[in-house]
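Practice set, problem 2.
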Amino acid sequence: MAKFSEAIKKTLIHEGGYVNDPDDAGGETNFGISKRSYPNVDIKNLTLAGAKDIYRRDYWERLRADEITHQQVADELFDTAVNMGVRTATKLIQMALDVHPDGVLGNITLSTLNKSDAEKTLLKFKLAKIARYTNLANKRPSNRKYLRGWINRTLGA
C-alpha cells in the first residue's frame, strides 16, 4: 500500500516555502498551503510539520491513498490534489479510469484504480491534467505564466 511519507517528499519539491504572488488565485501560500483555502491559518508562520498535518488530513486521507496499491499512482494523485484540489484530482483519475467522474473517491473508483494497469492509468491521468492546465491558462491569462511549470510538474521534469 502507498505511503504518505513517500508522496509528501515528492510534492514538497514543488511546494517550496513562503510565496505571496499577486497573480496566484490561492493568494499567500507556504509549503503550498494557501490562505484562500485556510483563512484561519497563519500562513507566513506555518511550519513544515503543520503543513504535513494538513496534507495528511485534508488530502491524503480524503483520497484514501493508504489503500492505493501503486505508490507512483498515489504520489501523482496526491500531488494533483494538492495542486488542483481533491475533487478535481479525483474527477481526473476517474476520467482516466473510465469511471463516472463524480469527484468522490469511493469503493468503485478505488477498486478500479487498484486493478488498473498503473502505467496506462498514469499516462491517461497526466494527459487529462495537461488538458486541464491548458484550459486554465486559456481561461485566465494571468495563469499562462504557470503553464510550463504545471506541465513540467506533471511530466516529472
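Problem 2, part (b): a different protein.
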Amino acid sequence: MATASDWFIHQLDVDNVFLHGDLHEEIYMKPPPGLSLPHPNLVCKLNKSLYGLKQAASRNWNQKLTSEILILGYTQSYANHSLFVKKSASDITALLVYVNDVVLTGNNIVEINAVKAHLHSIFHIQDLGPIKYFLGLEVSRSLDGLVLNQRKYCLDLISETEMLGCKPAPTPSNPSIKLLLDPSSFRCMIGRLLYLTNIRPDISFVV
C-alpha cells in the first residue's frame, strides 16, 4: 500500500527496550557483582524490568509501547497486533512494531513527526529517517516503487558460516556425509535460510 500510494516510510529504533517495561508485581533480585549492600541478607527490589527477567520483560515492554501508541489515537489491528492505524477524512498513518524496530508510513509527514516526538519524550528513540534496512531487508526507492533485497543478509550468513571462500557446486550436499556440527547452530542456519526464501523463493526446495 505504501508503495502504490507513494507514502512516506520512516524507521525508528528504541534503545534498551526491555528497561522501559513497567512491573506490576513485586520482584526482588540478588545484588549484582560489584554492588555492596549494608547487610549480606539484603536484596534489591526492581522498579523496572531487566534483560533476562523471567517475568516476561518483552511482554511488559510491548504493553508499555502499545499504551503510548493508543494514547495518540491509533487503533490496534485485530488481524496483526503489531500493526496500529490512524485514519481521518484525508490522512492515514500506519505504525508497525517488531520488538524495538518501528516502521511508520502514511501520507502525512506532520503526523509521522508528531509520533516520533511523542515516543522520544517517553523512550529514547533513534530516528533513522526514511527506511533503508529492516529485519534483514535492504529497502531503496526507485521510480518504479520499492526495491527489496537481502544482499547484506546473505553476506553476513555466508561469513558467519565461514564459507566466504567457497565455490558454488551444482550438487552441494552429499547424503553420505555425517555432519560433526553443533545441531543448534545448524538449525539456526536453516532458520536463517528459510527467512531468505521470502526474497529468494527459487532456493525454497533446496532449503
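Answer key, part (b): The chain has a mean pLDDT of 83. Residues 57-71 form the longest helix (15 residues).
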